[in-house]
Amino acid sequence: MTILSDITTLDAVAGLAATLPQADSAAAEAARARQDSLTKPPGALGRLEELAIHMAGWQRSERPRIETAQALVFAGNHGICAQGVNPFPQAVTAQMVANFEAGGAAINQLCRASGADLSVHALDLDRPTRDFSQAVAMDPEEVLAAMKTGAEAVDPAAQVLVLGEMGIGNSTVAAALACATFGGAPADWVGRGTGSDAAGRARKAEVVADGVARHQAARGLTLLAAFGGREQAAICGAVLEARARAIPVLLDGYICTAAVAPLFDADPALLAHCLAGHASAEPGHRRLLDAMGLRPVLSLDMALGEGSGAALALGVLRAALECHNGMATFAEAGVSGG
């Protein structure tokens, strides 16, 4: 059973926030006190201290650990590609999924380096969503089905979840989701994606403007139906299942962050367990992170997707916990100043 097993409407998803687990404030405060007692000046490890405290609250332990880290990559295809928004054919989505499964992509190497168990889930690649500039991309039933696929993919034994995606055309979907959620000019949310030139970016902005105008009444989870792909919906399902199991989440770049914007719009509290793995080179990503109050762990000018930035951030998260758990306190080391 997952958190979404008995959910039958998108409206019901938004109401989950009040029933989901919260971080344990006592464990977080105990972790903060431990940080202040370690052999270093208070705050000297900067963000590493915050990451350790975040993990402590969700693991309900003063000394959180990562024994099992899971990475999930969801893949889908998009009807919006009919509008000429991508320089590559949709066949590339399936080709890249095969590359993931064969171990040949960047995410495979990064998961190996950071110690994450990777699995890839392709969602009906032979059946793209509808063109959101002409109609809703998915029916509510399709959204829920994809969300449930995402929820079912979560390993209950994981202590942290890394999320990523693949789908030709999904940078246009991300721009539409971000623009529809937070407003602003469509051009402000559009970037290069997989290599669009200036004319391609202008075309993407036009398409996003058409879609946002058509679906201006959409809010919350209905944004997924209006614009989303199956991989975006699956990411939302995985985020909710992780929350139900108090598993912290590392979100990847622009597309992954935009995928959960409908959850934020429904209730920002639904993302309290989420960390932004990195700030990508896509111009809309920092704007989106600021709007959602998410501070990235890394900023390396990456724009690959696949979960690559989140997988790298997992290494930083592991380092934060090594320091938190392995350093001596002033009392243990016999050092004055504690």
TrEMBL record:
Keyword field contains Transferase? yes
Signal as UniProt keyword? no
Per its UniProt record, what CDD domains does this chain match? DMB-PRT_CobT
Matches recorded under Pfam families = DBI_PRT
Name the source's superkingdom.
Bacteria
Q: What are the positions of the active site?
A: 306 (proton acceptor)
Name the chemical reaction catalysed here: 5,6-dimethylbenzimidazole + nicotinate beta-D-ribonucleotide = alpha-ribazole 5'-phosphate + nicotinate + H(+)
Cite the InterPro entries for this sequence.
Nict_dMeBzImd_PRibTrfase, Nict_dMeBzImd_PRibTrfase_bact, Nict_dMeBzImd_PRibTrfase_N, Nict_dMeBzImd_PRibTrfase_sf
Task: Output the PANTHER family linked to this UniProt entry.
Answer: NICOTINATE-NUCLEOTIDE--DIMETHYLBENZIMIDAZOLE PHOSPHORIBOSYLTRANSFERASE (PTHR43463:SF1)
Name of the molecule in the record: Nicotinate-nucleotide--dimethylbenzimidazole phosphoribosyltransferase
Give the originating organism.
Pseudoponticoccus marisrubri
